[in-house]
């Protein structure tokens, strides 16, 4: 779905047909008139065969557009008849549960009008994505939000939402990890929900849950508990490689003003305030992956406008919205409103607060958890013990991919040992940001390395990520000779800025290297021969144990006195520790140092062996 164009006169699109049957999107809208056709066009381009939209209390023609789309065979409109005392969204979901068309769906997803599905896998269509899902024997896909901000845009525009707003929260921002779930539907077994369906009580203690296999957004199987509960991803389960749900909660300042004027689909009082804006206006990284749909979406959108009724309704909705906005912009309230939101945009990502959905009673949660869930959890724990996997997983402190240092969003800074660190979500994960703001980033390494390293040692770090440890060592141990390598240009940019801000200069005693060295033994061997490390710190996750052993041999030198596994290598390859330790043992590293295993693993060579090489500790 990376392109679609035609020189012919636009004409109405055809309803998609899928080899996976009926793929249904269920949504709910209230006065979304200016955005309805883009949402419809986009999700037809993605490949939903059926779009079912429930509306309530519309004044701008949203419902009329959807009725016309139903007449054209391109969507299905439903009135959301709301019982007294019930909020609109739960009401719509209850109606959807009983809807015959929804019930006949092979695959189903419930999501909002400000959410746009973005498929990275294959050609960007649901057919390709579901091919991959079913090839894994799975029957569900848990899709995590990406929160898109205003990008600093104040004024109203008729341009597509998915093309105007290309700045988002970092992938590893856990406050933006709500999910939506695409799953194989069976109305007899599943009860619909806004984030994910839940199994009906009558199937919980049967064999049915054993057949449920859901994947995350990277195609990896979700944890057992998520079959039964949970509405958001966690550090262990988040993934975006295959698919993400782009959430455009604020858009521009003017669009947000319209949203606040009309209220929201769930009738929440004061929802659209500056606190909500600060939370949702995240612009830390650029993400233009949605542009793969631009041509196809425009082709469908133009086709929809070829219908004179839809065209009239669409432009009437735009005119109505712009007239309301003009009145507001002429009022005394507009400038303070803009100033308030612009101030909120400056709130660093580490300082925003997110209120989760109302917490359920823990006792009720425990009561609902069936015996099958407890048995499944026990079974998985037994499997982990049987294959020798450690129960203590290192804390991943660094974003693994997509690091972008081209912008500098508002962020907090805090002293961590001898280095002032920025709480930059573009490079650090949520656990790391917490450590930074508490002044405890990599505390175990920062406290112990200055005491463990030999006097005047040549310290060589491969895959330095942030340069924090080496910078701290420069301050605490000026006798050391430091060579710091990082092949990612964006991380190198971060290291350079960090060191400059902390008064650390690159000199003959402090070197910064950007060439890749860890991927093959010959290159790494030459690097070791040139740098002659006494202390070798390994943080590049591309390096494996076999390459390390071959590189040491290729260097023609005795092994270093000390080796440390840290950072991204340690968090990504900790399960390979037995292989690394076999290699290190053959190289003479018989002593494991007393470092926190959540942070690093350190090894020292046998002193007698080191002395035999003339390099005693």
From TrEMBL:
Topology with respect to the bilayer: Single-pass membrane protein
Source species of the chain: Tranquillimonas rosea
Compartmental location: Membrane
GO MF, one annotated term: glycosyltransferase activity
Keywords noted in UniProt: Membrane, Transferase, Transmembrane, Transmembrane helix
Gene Ontology CC terms, in alphabetical order: cytoplasm; membrane
InterPro entries listed in its UniProt record: Nucleotide-diphossugar_trans, SAM-dependent_MTases_sf
Pfam family, one: Glyco_tranf_2_4
Descriptive protein name: Glycosyl transferase family 2
Record's keyword annotation contains Protein transport: no
